Amino acid sequence: MNIHSDKILILDFGSQVTQLIARRVRELGVYCELHPYDMSEDAIRAFGAKGVILSGGPESTLEAGSPRAPEIVWQLGVPVLGICYGMQTMAMQLGGQVSPGSVKEFGYAEVRARGHSKLFDGIQDRAGEAGEGLLDVWMSHGDYVSRLPEGFSRIGSTHDLDYAAMADETRGYYAVQFHPEVTHTTQGKELYSRFVHAICGCGSAWTPHNIADDAIARVRQQVGDKKVLLGLSGGVDSSVVAALLHKAIGDQLTCVFVDNGLLRLHEGDAVMQMFAQNMGVKVIRADAEALFLERLAGVADPEAKRKIIGKTFIDVFEAEATKLKDVEFLAQGTIYPDVIESAGAKTGKAHVIKSHHNVGGLPAHMRMQLVEPLRELFKDEVRALGLELGLPREMVFRHPFPGPGLGVRILGEVSKPAADTLRRADHIFIEELRKAGWYDQTSQAFAVFLPVKSVGVTGDGRRYEPVIALRAVQTIDFMTAHWAHLPYELLDVCSRRIVNEVPGVSRVVYDISGKPPATIEWE
Ligand SMILES: Nc1ncnc2c1ncn2[C@@H]1O[C@H](COP(=O)(O)OP(=O)(O)OP(=O)(O)O)[C@@H](O)[C@H]1O
Ligand SMILES: O=c1[nH]c(=O)c2[nH+]cn([C@@H]3O[C@H](COP(=O)(O)O)[C@@H](O)[C@H]3O)c2[nH]1
Ligand SMILES: NC(=O)CC[C@H](N)C(=O)O
Ligand SMILES: [Mg+2]
């Protein structure tokens, strides 16, 4: 089975929600890739899409020099779906007209299906007076299509908009002014299904089972009988890579787990038990606590700490790699958002808020070839693959844990006593979250060690000791986040347990900052 034979190309005009288009299409069992709208004609031809989707975007087609779909898109002979800006540029390029709206339209709208179209066939939220389909959708636009191109007819309208959707069924061109990729458009997924399955004729081969089979086959082909090294953190991505490679190449895989002294309580033992003992994976535990703490001693600046930790990871990793003979491949847990974001980062002028360390960045001078079996997958697909490969649920659905670990959760200077205190407080917080059923309702939760002392009183004695902050956030993509509205009772239990059970903590506070303006980690 070739899971890549039926695939959709998404050309990105810069909408905030373009990634969601890809997620929806993948959820329907169809492989797709996201590329910038100015992808070269040769690359578009070579891609071999069964259909093309043009995303929304922030610009106006009425501005000189605004983006257009490459002409080749209209010559491929495959269906095309335009979303918002994608609809507007489709109209412009094929001979219709776009006009500036007098008001911008954001949020809910009701679309009335007009005539019959393959796109809306069989989908509606309810029926209108004449039995026509009505759809609840989400809009976000200023411009609108004011004249249809030759060959098109209108297939949907709203109270304010004559052409909320248009189609040229003969050529297989469809377009909607609203955003079917957001969940507020309740029939959005069905609408994408109409496009990718009914109109483009794609099958549904992109499933966790087939993804696993395919990834295993590809790894075997790439690696042959050579040896592979993997940095295993116990986090979701590297754990799924470990399970996959173990299945694909068994003994040819060696993992290096670096205990940098900045891990969660019992993390090292848990990783060894899970992978080395239960699964029979070869794991080397590199005990580097002393080295990390020594290099971090006296350093308080967050960026300086991140750089030291990143560099030390590389040193430890390289030392382990040279001990193993003839390793030719280095495996990494690079996932699809990393690929998309680093492509964006190359062209963008974004500020560096913090240098996200990635042991991933290390191999340039190690002369090893990369094995990146998760490169095409979104996080939810990585998790589904992990379950498919037999990893336990609690491992697959754990909160992410940053490479620098407690190093960026102990504010200022890092020390072993601070790390020990923080580990214990963090453990209590996570344990209580799980007990209360809140772990799965938060995306990331942890404790932070604040090196400010405050006065407390216990058993009639005075305490003058550091503060622990608790942080729990809810987010989809970790780019923005809300603080979690944890129940007071839960916070109360955590606070009391931490002050009572962890020596050296005078009080506990809860972080109620969103991202932005704060970031998720404190450093
Ligand atoms: N303690 C560690 N020992 C060995 N490798 C590590 C360690 N910490 C991080 N790495 C490497 O750095 C990579 C990036 O870390 P990152 O935290 O982004 O991913 P992850 O730990 O696999 O997953 P998650 O995002 O769920 O934490 C990991 O995939 C792993 O290869
Ligand atoms: O592997 C990592 N190496 C890092 O250096 C790093 N810094 C932050 N994070 C994680 O990234 C997400 C967003 O965090 P921030 O809002 O703090 O930037 C959150 O999930 C953070 O835990 C890191 N992960
Ligand atoms: N969301 C969009 O794609 C918006 C398209 C265009 N920028 C407009 O305002 O009409
Ligand atoms: Mg991690």
Automatic annotation (TrEMBL):
It catalyses: XMP + L-glutamine + ATP + H2O = GMP + L-glutamate + AMP + diphosphate + 2 H(+). Residues 206-398 form the GMPS ATP-PPase domain. Coiled coil: none annotated. ATP binds at S233, G234, G235, V236, D237, S238, S239. Keywords: ATP-binding, Glutamine amidotransferase, GMP biosynthesis, Ligase, Nucleotide-binding, Purine biosynthesis. Pathway: Purine metabolism; GMP biosynthesis; GMP from XMP (L-Gln route): step 1/1. Pfam families: GATase, GMP_synt_C, NAD_synthase. Catalyzes the synthesis of GMP from XMP. This is GMP synthase [glutamine-hydrolyzing]. It comes from Stagnimonas aquatica. The gene is guaA.
